[in-house]
Amino acid sequence: MSIRSYYDSSNIRADVKVVQCDPVESGYRVILDDTIFHPQGGGQPSDKGTINGEEVISVRCCDTGIYHLLANPVKLGDAEIILDTQAREVHSRLHSAGHVIGYLGETLGWRAIQGHHFPGEGRVAFTGYDAADLPQPEELEYQVNQLIRQGGKQNQHFDGQGYRMVGFDDLIAYPCGGTHVDDLTDIGSIRIMGIKNKKGKLTIRYDIEG
Predict the structure, then answer these.
(1) Count of CB atoms situated within 10 Å of the CB of 176
(2) How would residue 65 be classed by pLDDT, with cut points 50, 70 and 90?
């Protein structure tokens, strides 16, 4: 199984070993002994970057751990992997912003059930709300940005069932396999793009500034 160093590593490059490289219809499936690349899942897109100079098209989970899809093959053995830091920063800011929105919803008595943190598609879904509790987008945006400006250091731990829990200072920690900013202030400002109430599910759409 691949070691998931992206859980707690801020490295932008790493020396690893290619343990498998198999041709598939869409390119080459590469498995490493250790990776700093976050695979797509949990509402977050996969990281980008290179393995020995070859572009990583996507990263996915598989039975043997994590595979990296490349257009061209790489040799087995020692390899250098380099992360696209710009893409990672955007993904981490979006995911952390989703957690803050989820936390704020919890304080209003709602229950966060789903998050989607792709660029241009950010949204968090809730149940258990009352229509009378719904704020205007401008009000919610102000409250979320207030929490972000107050800051909070990221913390993570594994619970008794083996789930990775991610939170910020005293904010609620959620089960999460994604990447996050070190401090809430690193998110910058967010915009609430809309609030939708349909069939017992409340969806808040959002984006980050810059």
Answers:
(1) 21
(2) confident
User: For residue range 161-180, what is the model confidence (pLDDT) as tens digits?
Assistant: 889 999 999 888 989 999 99
Terminal Cα-to-Cα distance of the chain (whole angstroms): 37
Give the tokens for residue 12. Answer: 């932008």
Please tell me the distance from the alpha carbon of residue 205 to that of residue 210, in angstroms, as a whole number: 17
Which residues lie below 8 Å from residue 99, measured CB to CB, with a gap of 6+?
115, 166, 167, 168, 171, 174, 176, 180
Q: Which two tokens stand for residue 187?
A: 């998110």
- Radius of gyration, CA atoms only, the chain: 19
pTM of the model: 0.92
> Which ranges of 54-208 does DSSP label H, i.e. alpha helix?
85-107, 137-150
Find residue 3's DSSP bridge partners. Answer: 34
pLDDT, one tens digit per residue, over 17-64 is 999 999 999 999 999 999 999 999 989 999 999 999 999 999 999 887
